[in-house]
Amino acid sequence: MKHMTRMTYMTHMTQPTATRARDPEIPAAAPAVTFTGVVKRFGDVTAVDGVGLEIAHGETVALLGRNGAGKSTTVSLLLGLDEPDTGRVALFGNAPENSVRRGLVGAMLQEARPVPRITVGELVTFVAGRYPAPMPVERALDLAGVTELADRRVDRLSGGQAQRVRFAVALAGDPALVVLDEPTAALDVEARHAFWQAMRAYARRGHTVLFSTHYLEEADAHADRIVIIDRGRIVAEGTGEELRQAACGSLVSFDVTATGTEGLTRLPGVVSLEVRGNRVRLRTEDSDATVLALAERDAIRGLQVSPASLDDAFLALTGSAAPEVR
Amino acid sequence: MFDYVRLEVRRTLRDTGFVIGGVAMPVMMYLLFTNLGTDDGSWRTASMVGMAAYGAVGSALNTGGGVAEDKAVGWLRQLRITPMLPREVVLGRALTGAVTVLPAIGAVLAAGGLVNGVRLDVWQWAAIALLLWLGSLPFTLLGLGTGYRLTAQATGVVNMLCNLGLSVLGGLWFPVALFPGWLRSLSSFTPTNRFAELGTAVADGHAPALAAVLVLAAWLLVFGSYAVVSYRRAAQTV
User: For residue B89, how far is the Cα from the chain centroid?
Assistant: First the structure.
């Protein structure tokens, strides 16, 4: 793979937020999440193909990838809902089931539909009651912004409301690690904003948060670190800024000329070529050399040189179409 | 786990389909079948036990419908990522079934005593209710087995076929005496027939025959194994 940013997240570990004092049973030495050479196949399809990943206590990490990149399988493996074919998954140094039983994990699953014939208050109270040290139910409802829905039935809510209830369910046990699989999929702009505020408030209290998304902007705005997954492999990780830099310098674009696009990919610095309408877009590691070579070909019409966006970074790193951008 | 049973019982009782199909229907059928045509005192008592059994079977099977629904909406999966143990969930569901069969049994017995004037000793009422309650366990396991194995829709269909088929064949709706000889002997091997026999024996003033207990115990084993195998197969995929 082209560029690999292995960002060190020691900075997060040294921050005073780390683990909460009232969780003495969490081994402070073990990271919140560890994947070691994890492979998961479904028939002929290799959904997760040798993933290695470590998430420290108190970190907020985004798992970014297109639909079908392997995000949900990774989440299932992480929660112990699935077992890896090879490799090892550990939460707080133990098998996932073990950490789940000890109440260290809360999760919001993607494919879940509302539980029928139960009120929001009943549901959150019940789930909170399963955990050894839950937060007060009122607090969970408040954090997720569903206090006024407490007496409503879960199966009679709008999609966005139901989504927030599922967030309250994930938080109710006050777990050290919260896993959110595509948490904003059904939310409108306002609800999404409220959701991320609540998530950050929770993360600030020293909790570890892992969320998956196929929206670049969400990953960039709300995670300490972005892990890009593509075709079951981790292709890059780092902050949004690091990924932008790593993904190759700049984009040179110009109008298609009579000389055509023949041979352009062989110009100095050029990594990839794309034609959109009558514009040629060259991704390049050395824009100066590329522009000079273009000038020699007399191919410069309406030239533009711009730094790569996170979109471009994603494109370069996954070597395929960028995920949706909102 | 007590919390879980309470939650699931509450959810079941809020299910209009359950209240109508599992409780109101057996009561209505009982009153209808015993008040049309002949006014036979012994039939009023026998049918009371039969319809209470029919209601209990339907309610017990409904537990499986609930499991299939919970599987479909992802509730069982959500429970797997709480500290609850998988066996607590299964056991909790079985106990839920043990609670939700009570309304049907109670309602039909009440209709017999209060509306149809069935007169029995106090110990008989208590013994009938208790035996019908305990005897419904095989049917709860049958429902759970189907619920874990099949989709919600398929579970609904299978449960209905089991409920109607076993009820009619077991003589819960019509007296077995009306059946031709071969069907009567077949009927004596059904779990429903022996289930009702627990109650009718007590109503007649004696203990259930050993054969009834044995046949029912055999079915308990069969349905129990079915539930265990289905659960094991589904456990990794819910």
Answer: 20
